């Protein structure tokens, strides 16, 4: 993959899988306003691309992502300018959750603050066993309040509060145990497990995956009765879709399905 120093976000598309690579290695892939803008725009482009089945989020350099670009932020003047950075970050994180394609984080190294938020926002996450995760804002007088939103939705409250209150990094094995990532693997196996999982998902019906991802996040915010009523409606619509008809027919005929979408 090319590493043009002027390109802060690299995109590669192969076999229905789009890989977005953060490429600010000297800045430990800090989320500058420019990088967040490019990431937001590229996610929007891919959302409208029917050939893209899965999105993988990766990074170059010694860190996966160190969070916000604090040097850039210290240069801002006034509340509105500061608020615009967090608003942009929120748009990126919400875009990942609402992306029609599943988004997989491939974490090769440290992910801190908004970088940890990025991992927590993705649908799946695989990490090198040597990777570390932290929400260390409390150490510099800036509590990780926006990272807290994503973090508290994927790990238990006690675990989230431990990370937020102490700022202490956790290792990949702990991140797996707490549910922040799916799996911690040897660094040399990270590419393989990510690629295999992406390919497995890319082989499914895109419409079915999109329907399921959207339903998952919507029902998670509902009470039990509302969630079941909503999920039943979604499943009814899904059952009547062409790909469900094809999938069931293929299963009964013991042949591979041929998806229409």
TrEMBL record:
Which keywords fit this entry according to its UniProt record? Fatty acid metabolism, Lipid metabolism, Lyase, Transit peptide
InterPro entries with a match to the protein in the record: ClpP/crotonase-like_dom_sf, Enoyl-CoA_hydra/iso, Enoyl-CoA_hydra_C, Mitochondrial_ECH-domain
The answer to whether the entry has keyword Endoplasmic reticulum is no
- Taken from the record, one Pfam family name reads ECH_1
Membrane spanning stretches:
none
Give the top-rank taxon of the lineage listed in the UniProt record for this protein.
Bacteria
The GO biological-process annotations, alphabetized, read as:
fatty acid metabolic process
Residues spanning the signal sequence: none
- Spell out the SUPFAM superfamilies in the cross-references: ClpP/crotonase
Instruction: Please name the GO terms that the record assigns under molecular function.
Output: hydro-lyase activity
Role played: May play a role in fatty acid biosynthesis and insulin sensitivity.
Which family does the record claim for this protein? Belongs to the enoyl-CoA hydratase/isomerase family.
Its name, as the record gives it, is Enoyl-CoA hydratase domain-containing protein 3, mitochondrial
- Give the organism the record lists: Magnetospirillum molischianum DSM 120
The lineage is:
Bacteria, Pseudomonadati, Pseudomonadota, Alphaproteobacteria, Rhodospirillales
């Amino acid at each position: 993959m090319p590493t043009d120093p002027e390109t802060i976000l690299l995109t590669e598309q192969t076999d229905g899988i789009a890989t977005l690579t953060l490429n600010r290695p000297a800045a430990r892939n800090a989320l500058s306003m420019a990088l967040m803008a490019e990431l937001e725009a590229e996610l929007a482009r891919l959302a409208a691309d029917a050939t893209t089945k899965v999105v993988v989020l990766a990074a170059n350099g010694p860190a996966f992502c160190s969070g916000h670009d604090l040097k850039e932020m210290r240069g801002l003047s006034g509340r509105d300018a500061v608020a615009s950075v967090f608003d942009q970050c929120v748009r990126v994180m919400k875009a990942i959750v609402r992306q029609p394609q599943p988004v997989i984080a491939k974490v090769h190294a440290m992910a801190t603050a908004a970088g940890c938020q990025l991992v927590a926002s993705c649908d799946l996450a695989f990490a090198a066993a040597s990777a570390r995760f932290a929400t260390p804002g409390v150490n510099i007088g800036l509590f990780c309040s926006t990272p807290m939103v994503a973090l508290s939705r994927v790990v238990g409250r006690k675990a989230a509060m431990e990370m937020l209150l102490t700022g202490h990094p956790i290792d990949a094995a702990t991140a797996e145990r707490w549910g922040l990532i799916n799996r911690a693997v040897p660094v040399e196996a990270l590419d393989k497990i990510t690629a295999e999982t992406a390919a497995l998902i890319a082989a499914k019906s895109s419409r079915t995956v999109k329907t399921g991802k959207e339903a998952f996040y919507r029902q998670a915010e509902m009470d039990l009765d509302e969630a079941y009523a909503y999920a039943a409606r979604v499943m009814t619509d899904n059952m009547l879709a062409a790909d469900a008809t094809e999938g069931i027919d293929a299963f009964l005929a013991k042949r591979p399905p041929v998806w229409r979408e």
